[in-house]
């Protein structure tokens, strides 16, 4: 059997060399054909699909046709990926292999059946992407050493930059699942309590320090029972795939509210994710070692396998007066200190249970250089070094009308495994 990541694979569906969605990727998403793009008489519904070039392949329809499937179970009938996530790695691999085979240039089934092809292969610009997963639980980590060091240096000085626990455990907080939105959803500038250092009392109003955080996240596949930790060597069996995450942040609200329990209203107004979930299987060729961990973590966080991935990550900003987005950050997932496996092992070590579709985000992924900083807070060093944009504008933090975009991909030999993008426009308070 040919590996689904073989660089030599080609699809009968046209794929540009710089497309995020070649046959080696096959990321999963949920789409709707409602609204003006729906065919006459078509009822709006949510379907599971995989992206291929500029098209989406309808897995819900293919499953109903019997063209894909495992043992008669329906994985794609409910308009979300949750059932499929719960199925586990052997089902994921089988469905991925079947889908890859159907799309290959040397497979006639779809290639030569124009009727079936018209039913199951739709242009991406004719569908609307929705949240791919019903997300029950959301946790956000703080796993970039460079990000934690930058923020710690700004607020506590270089000698106390990292808190004493940071090199021993992946710090996190429990976030808000209900306000996770799909790419393209506008974000309203939140209002809240802030207090300037010199002010005698707090005041209330729109945040003045609206920021983004460049992150990735992973969706939990099979869950775990309450009381039963997931050992690190089995963690990857519970990780389905990854998305891009923008953890919108209101820095002035955060500064006043965060002590002693961490972020709350500064983060819960919106978190944006990319619509396509890239399966770990597609990222396997890009597995690489992460940063050296010194001191060595405790036993339950130790792993002998390299568990990072070489994924280039970009942030772009487009203000109301700009015609094209301008890149302001270039970072890489491989800079992240704590791995996804360590995050999952740590999260469950108490016996905290996981459910299929829980989202665990990385924390801001900053790299070692100035251009690889993953937030405005760091890029402008708390607003003291504004970013200059083409056209002469400057930014310290995000203004109303600004559009923030994140993109990411792993570069293979003649193909790229990409995430598409996560974007959002800031609306006035
Ligand atoms: Ca964050």
Word description of this protein:
The termini are far apart. The chain folds into two domains: 28-130, SH3 type barrels; 138-427, Alpha-Beta Complex (Fumarylacetoacetate hydrolase, domain 2), CATH 3.90.850.10. The protein is globular, with a radius of gyration of 22 Å. Strands 6, 7, 8, 13, 14, 16, 17 and 22 form an eight-stranded mixed β-sheet that branches. Strands 4-3-2-1-5 form a five-stranded antiparallel β-sheet. It is built from ten helices and 26 strands. By secondary structure, the chain is of the alpha+beta class. The chain has helices at residues 59-65, 82-87, 89-103, 108-111, 114-120, 145-156, 251-257, 280-283, 340-348, 376-379, and strands spanning 28-32, 46-52, 55-58, 121-123, 128-130, 138-141, 172-174, 180-182, 187-188, 191-194, 203-206, 210-211, 214-220, 239-246, 249-250, 271-273, 278-279, 287-288, 308-309, 312-318, 326-332, 359-361, 387-388, 394-395, 403-411, 416-427. The longest helix has 15 residues, at 89-103. A hairpin with a 4-residue loop joins strand 25 and strand 26. Bound molecules: calcium ion.
